[in-house]
């Protein structure tokens, strides 16, 4: 099976605890005003990737000490079959990796971002999320800023789903960020570009743009502008 993918990155350090593999699904029809990832909206954009190739990335990340997988987008649930296969495979592969590390280390967790609210999830969505340890749910609402870590607006909820999710995320449910929670990665695969990973505080993207400009880097098509 294939998924349309916007990007992958390891080590991702700004969307979930620890060093993680990030996989961003392509395609989102929810069109939140103020979304910083408009480049992920087009369902025909990004690139097709085999789930087996994504799982190879996960295996490599586990070998490199990954503490978790973060799946974001775009809207991962708009490719529910591919998401189900990815999470099932990621769950299967993490146990041997943990045994190889030291036999008792923490199990890497699986975190999924979705713009849907729990009440909107269909049986197909719920099946796709069967192996997720935690979800961050809800549309981005620009008018409801928050400082809660890993959430873009105050309506979004971090929801542990499993005992591992509880253990890993309970300390962060009410934890607030202090800024600086963004990671910038130079990406030249489609011409000169910078990818910014993480959830910005209000006004933080403007500061990033200003800082880049002062360093001589002018963003021509930032993904957060219509
Ligand atoms: S914030 Fe998330 S759910 Fe909303 S439009 Fe952007 S990618 Fe889609």
TrEMBL record:
SUPFAM superfamilies associated with the record: Radical SAM enzymes
InterPro entries linked to this entry: Aldolase_TIM, Organic_radical-activating, rSAM, rSAM_sf
Record has Chloroplast as a keyword: no
UniProt keyword terms in alphabetical order: 4Fe-4S, Iron, Iron-sulfur, Metal-binding, S-adenosyl-L-methionine
Highest taxon above the source species: Bacteria
Cofactor: [4Fe-4S] cluster
A GO MF term: metal ion binding
Statement: the UniProt record of this protein carries the keyword Iron: yes
Protein's recorded name: Anaerobic ribonucleoside-triphosphate reductase activating protein
Protein's organism: Streptomyces pini
């Amino acid at each position: 099976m294939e998924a349309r993918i916007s990007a992958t990155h390891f080590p991702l350090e700004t969307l979930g605890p620890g060093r993680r593999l990030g996989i961003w699904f392509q395609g989102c029809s929810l069109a939140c005003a103020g979304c910083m990832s408009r480049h992920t909206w087009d369902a025909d954009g990004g690139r097709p990737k085999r789930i087996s190739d994504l799982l190879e990335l996960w295996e490599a990340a586990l070998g490199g000490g990954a503490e978790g997988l973060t799946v974001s987008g775009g809207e991962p649930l708009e490719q529910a079959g591919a998401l189900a296969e990815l999470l099932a495979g990621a769950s299967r592969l993490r146990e041997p990796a943990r045994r190889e590390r030291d036999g008792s280390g923490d199990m890497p967790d699986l975190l999924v971002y979705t713009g849907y609210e729990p009440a909107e999830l269909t049986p197909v969505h719920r099946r796709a999320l069967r192996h997720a340890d935690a979800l961050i749910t809800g549309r981005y609402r620009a008018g409801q800023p928050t400082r809660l870590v890993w959430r873009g607006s105050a309506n979004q909820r971090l929801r542990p789903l499993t005992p591992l999710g509880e253990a890993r995320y309970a300390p962060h449910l009410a934890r607030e960020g202090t800024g600086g929670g963004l990671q910038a990665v130079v990406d030249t695969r489609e011409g000169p570009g910078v990818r910014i990973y993480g959830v910005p505080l209000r006004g933080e993207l403007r500061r990033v743009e200003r800082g880049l400009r002062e360093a001589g880097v002018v963003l021509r098509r930032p993904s957060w502008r219509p």
